[in-house]
Design brief:
By secondary structure, the chain is an alpha+beta fold. The protein is built from six helices and eleven strands. Helices cover 25% and strands 22% of the residues.
Length: 279
């Protein structure tokens, strides 16, 4: 009969190993200190802090390299939105029923950590998902990489966004994600914070308490030849009229912090943050 002590040690060791993995992912994806940490969800491709009251992320952080852009085709199982197994208060499929077809709302399920970052060989075992296969995992494929794609499609990483003039082609959110792809052509790696902004007042609610943000932000960070960051910060009104060029949405990080109550790039002083901004 096995003694209980080794089992206890095994449980403790397994728990500590899991904590270590989470900490490593936080260090990879979050540039600087955590902006907040009320309900952290740590994933292979991103980290987020979940706002249960609004059923939306407070912020999402992700690290992007050229390798992570090797995503499978967004078809079959890779296009399926999924319930988050770590939450029971997340949005559900039924909450979005009819809102995309509604000509006034026209809400799509907007990824905060985008699908375009869900690829690559994250566990460095030499295997990635086959980009030419339609959502099938076959012998020789890496199950860990499949989990990465599934996690990007969790409802906790999604929030309602106008499609025609915001999330879709020609919208400002779409254009900023294109800007991120363009930056990666000349940078080895990027770090991004993205999220909704609610604030006081009233705004639309869909389904069972899924709040629709009146504004969104993105902060894109990179390092050029030093260990010090440079960045671009964007603040976007969430409406269906044309937004113009994304340069018109550029703001100071301090502006976003004032509107969200979050603290970005902790450890850098105010003057240093402002000096290194490209705003």
């Amino acid at each position: 009969m096995r003694k209980a002590v080794p089992l206890i040690i095994l449980v403790i060791a397994t728990t500590l190993a899991g904590q270590s993995t989470d900490q490593q992912l936080i260090e990879e994806h979050v540039y600087g200190d955590l902006p907040s940490q009320d309900n952290l969800l740590v994933r292979n491709a991103y980290v987020l802090d979940y706002d249960a009251a609004r059923k939306a992320p407070r912020w999402v952080a992700y690290h992007l390299t050229h390798d992570y852009r090797r995503t499978p085709k967004r078809t079959g199982r890779w296009s399926t939105y999924r319930n988050d197994p770590d939450r029971n208060d997340e949005p559900r499929e039924r909450d979005y029923r009819g809102v995309f077809a509604d000509p006034t709302r026209n809400y799509a399920r907007g990824h905060l950590a985008p699908f375009m970052i869900s690829g690559g060989d994250r566990d460095e075992d030499g295997k990635v998902l086959d980009a030419d296969r339609d959502g099938r995992v076959e012998a020789g494929d890496d199950r860990d990489e499949a989990i990465t794609v599934e996690e990007v499609n969790y409802h906790t990483n999604l929030t309602p966004q106008h499609h025609n003039a915001f999330n879709g082609s020609g919208g400002v959110w779409f254009d900023i994600e294109a800007r991120i792809r363009d930056l990666l052509e000349t940078k080895d790696e990027l770090w991004v914070f993205a999220g909704p902004i609610f604030g006081p007042g009233t705004y639309d609610i869909i389904g069972n308490g899924v709040h629709v943000a009146p504004m969104f932000f993105q902060i894109v960070i990179w390092e050029d030849n030093t260990d010090q960051p440079t960045w671009e910060a964007y603040l976007m009104p969430h409406h269906q009229s044309a937004h113009g060029d994304i340069k018109e949405q550029r703001v100071s990080i301090r502006h976003i912090e004032a509107m969200t109550g979050l603290d970005f790039l902790g450890g850098l002083g105010l003057e240093e943050v402002e000096r290194r901004s490209t705003y």
